[in-house]
Design a protein that fits this description.
The protein is an alpha+beta fold. The chain has one domain: Nucleoside diphosphate kinase-like domain (Alpha-Beta Plaits). Helix content is 38%, strand content 20%. The chain has seven helices and four strands. The protein has a four-stranded antiparallel sheet with strand order 2-3-1-4. Helix 3 packs across helix 4. It is globular and about 40 Å long. The structure holds ribavirin triphosphate and magnesium ion. Ribavirin triphosphate binds next to strand 4. Major role in the synthesis of nucleoside triphosphates other than ATP. The ATP gamma phosphate is transferred to the NDP beta phosphate via a ping-pong mechanism, using a phosphorylated active-site intermediate. It is found in: Cytoplasm. Its EC number is 2.7.4.6.
Length: 143
């Protein structure tokens, strides 16, 4: 199976609760390699642009306000089946429904403040990676 890339974000609640290391540990243990990373404090406009697919949803305003409320760390993960593997590691959107052993099941406070974002398809991963990174920012791992 070919290597795949996905876009991951440790959301403001994850950074605030000092969970960056814990989330990265889970990626690395699962064989997902970090090939680009960047800490940033999103503006409201950047959060709105990133989550534009959800602009008609009732939670859009809250979501974008929360996503711009503090620093996040954005990373590109590379590995076999990276999109699905990252979604598996994160667990269900709502931590009440997420399995134990998943990032959200173990660490998230609510359906909104749920620690991590992960692209939901290979096609969206390409769009989301390009939203934050130039091709030259990505450092393919040879070992
Ligand atoms: P994400 O895009 O952040 O990886 O999360 P997801 O695919 O599991 O869930 P999605 O439906 O794409 O929703 C995006 C984010 O919006 C917030 N949300 N709030 N209040 C609510 O009912 C609600 N529903 C979703 C969450 O932060 C969710 O991760
Ligand atoms: Mg989503």
């Amino acid at each position: 199976m070919a290597l795949e890339r996905t876009l991951s974000i440790v959301k403001p609640d994850g950074v605030q609760k000092n969970l960056i290391g814990e989330v990265y540990r889970r990626f690395e243990q699962a064989g997902l390699k970090i090939v680009a990373a960047r800490m940033m404090h999103l503006s409201l406009a950047q959060a709105e642009g990133f989550y534009a697919v959800h602009r008609e949803r009732p939670f859009f305003k809250d979501l974008t306000k929360y996503m711009s409320s503090g620093p996040v760390i954005v990373q590109v993960l590379e590995g076999e089946n990276a999109v699905a593997k990252n979604r598996e590691l994160m667990g269900a959107t709502d931590p009440k429904k997420a399995d134990k052993g998943t990032i959200r099941g173990d660490l998230a406070a609510s359906i909104e403040e749920n620690v991590a974002h992960g692209s939901d398809s290979a096609e969206n991963a390409k769009i989301e990676i390009a939203y934050f990174f130039a091709a030259a920012d990505i450092c393919p791992r040879t070992r």
